[in-house]
Amino acid sequence: MPENxxxxxxxxxxGGRVLDLQKPQIMAVxxxxxxxxxxxxxxxxxxxxxxxxxxxxRVEGACRGGATIxxxxxxxxxxxAAPVSEQEECDRVLPAVEAVAQRFDVVISxxxxxxAVIRESAVLGAGMVNDVRxxxxxxxxxxxxxxxxxxxxxxxxxxxxxxxSNPRYRNIVDEVTQFLLSRVAACTAAGIGKENILLDPGxxxxxxxxxxxxxxxxxxxxxxxxxxxxxxxSRKSMLGSITHRDVSExxxxxxxxxxxxxERGAHIFRVHDVEETRDALSVVAAIVGRRE
Length: 292
Ligand code: YH5
Hints:
Bound molecules: ligand YH5
Strand content: 15-25%
Number of strands: 10
CATH class: Alpha Beta
Helix content: 40-55%
Structural class: alpha/beta
Radius of gyration: 17 Å
Order of helices and strands: EEEHEHEHEHEHEHHEHHEH
Largest sheet: 8 strands, parallel
Number of domains: 1
Strand order of the largest sheet: 8-7-6-5-4-3-10-9
CATH topology: TIM Barrel
């Protein structure tokens, strides 16, 4: 449990805001893409341009529901998704970051692998970098280091267009651990302080159902590596495989998964259904620890 975890820092400094990691923190997913699997295109107007009004309404709902972090992403990383140009990603993400930063007292996380998006969003008020490629793109490590912001390093095998075609591991827990620790080493070598690093095993990113389940069963091991642990399980295909539910019907499964991850020591929960997840995490807190 986070409150018993004496290895990782009790707080995370995200620009001017502080997150208390003794309590579960909810990160609301906000996609500014036309094609994300679970909610793509919802914030676009008729011409496919992000509607700032719709975006702000969504952010307001998430904050009222208990989100302390808003994760803004302009690249669809769903299985099979096509790559997006850096310019396109900047055009989608930066106006959204700017609008949210001006109006809400919330930590803005940018879900990006691009050095330009990291740099520009840090200037506009972002408080965290969430990179599914763990800062492996050219310039991303340096941009993140210069931003001074916390970074979430996630594991992915392959790239989104092909990652689910035949994922293979010798020992998934060992391989994901080694990868994440090698990226921690790259970050510290680039000048990113250990207190600014979060880890995420990357559910669904180049992993079969069995791989995902094996990782989940090892979550307490990841929570003990000494870094805040983030998980993204919300609406994912693994939950669809288990329940045979379409993506629009995966909320109950997502909430159970978040609750079990909380019990295993996860600190930050990247979710679509904020209020419902918060209730579940409050119940976990009341039963197993000092939470909320
Ligand atoms: C994550 O786990 N995930 S984007 C497919 C779905 C539903 C949801 C098939 N960014 C993560 O949410 N960042 C994404 O239905 C992330 N951890 C971190 N740190 C994928 C996603 C999704 C994909």
